[in-house]
Write a structure and sequence with these properties.
alpha+beta, Hypothetical Protein Tm841, Chain: A,domain 3, single chain, 8 strands
Length: 210
């Protein structure tokens, strides 16, 4: 049997890059969590391969993410940080394997950083007033949970002010880069079908939902 892979078959939620030293086209980052969750729930409910593929592609079409770091990770084999940041710098648009971002800036408040990441995601034009979204505030591995909730509070306010309804919020370390300090924001536009799959129970080492 012969099969082909199209752009819709690849998780490509990262709005930070199109092409870079590290990627050809967009890369998959924390939005992959939603793809796994909903496609897995579909399979658990008895969906055949074609149905699971349809759900995965539906999630891919409606999910976007962007991340940042205040400190790089150290890959054990390398023995040194993937990139160097001054104490007053942040890296915007980082990947999930220790890759540097698309630009470096002076550090700002959590609200200012969240605004910058959200603005880039919302520029995609697929999230509008009246839409419902699931929000994932994902830690990169070395960020305290309390700081992630501080970011989430502001993200909730910004989306609410824009008339975008939040159906579910997930905060924690799900798609990490070892000990990297930073976070990413992911939005998934949901409909009734997707909400049912999102709410389905899950019991895995990395994601538990009862």
């Amino acid at each position: 049997m012969r099969s082909t892979i199209t752009g819709e078959d690849i998780v490509a939620d990262d709005v930070a890059v199109e092409n870079s030293t590290w990627t050809t086209g967009r890369r998959g980052i924390a939005g992959t969590i939603f793809v796994h969750k909903l496609a897995g729930a579909c399979a658990e409910a008895g969906g055949d391969l074609a149905e699971v593929k349809r759900i995965a592609e539906k999630v891919i079409a409606n999910v976007r993410s962007m991340g940042m770091a205040v400190d790089a990770c150290t890959v054990p084999a390398a023995g040194k940080p993937s990139f160097d940041l001054a104490d007053d710098e942040i890296e915007i648009g980082i990947g999930i394997h220790g890759e540097p971002g698309v630009n470096r800036e002076k550090i700002g408040t959590v609200d200012e950083i969240s605004d910058k990441l959200l603005a880039k995601i919302l520029e995609e034009g697929i999230y509008n007033s009246g839409d419902e979204v699931a929000v994932l505030v994902n830690g990169m591995g070395g960020t305290p949970l309390m700081e992630l909730f501080v970011a989430n509070k502001h993200i909730n306010k910004v989306l609410s002010d824009k008339g975008i309804k939040i159906y579910k919020t997930i905060v924690g370390n799900y798609m990490t880069s070892l000990d990297m300090e930073g976070f990413s924001i992911t939005l998934l536009k949901v409909d009734d079908e997707m909400k049912k799959l999102l709410d389905a129970p899950a019991d895995t080492p990395a994601f538990v939902q009862v």
